[in-house]
Amino acid sequence: MKASPLWIAALLLVGAAGAFWGAGSVPLALLSLAAVAAAVALSGVARRILGVLLVVVGVAAAFTGHWLAIAGGALVVVSGVLQAALGARMPKIGMGGQKSRPRDAETDMWRALERGDDPTDDKTPGGPSSNE
User: Fold this and answer.
1) pTM, whole model, 2 decimals?
2) By the 8 A CB rule, do 61 and 74 touch?
3) How many CB atoms neighbour CB 46 within 10 A?
4) What integer is the mean pLDDT of 85-98?
């Protein structure tokens, strides 16, 4: 099974949050967790911009001096680079497992009946019925 770059980036951010938490940098830990949600929800250019911002935050966080903060900063930088490089090709939330299915006319008729529509009525929207 091949791991998606989006999930790799998200797991790197979760690991960074743990490292920041251990270093006592709770705001950076919360920022890393918020970045997970943003990475999953955004797509295209917005995700690439998030990646660049994460690289900047990761580099700044690495200068705090604590070894866990340096490790967390490195994880944020790697996640940011991954998102900046591959952000346009990563799937957006809710789009990963969707496949288009061929339409079934019989199923469509049953659904129309459930809605209260008459599937045998040839009324076009805004026009007269051909049965009149």
Assistant:
1) 0.67
2) no
3) 13
4) 65
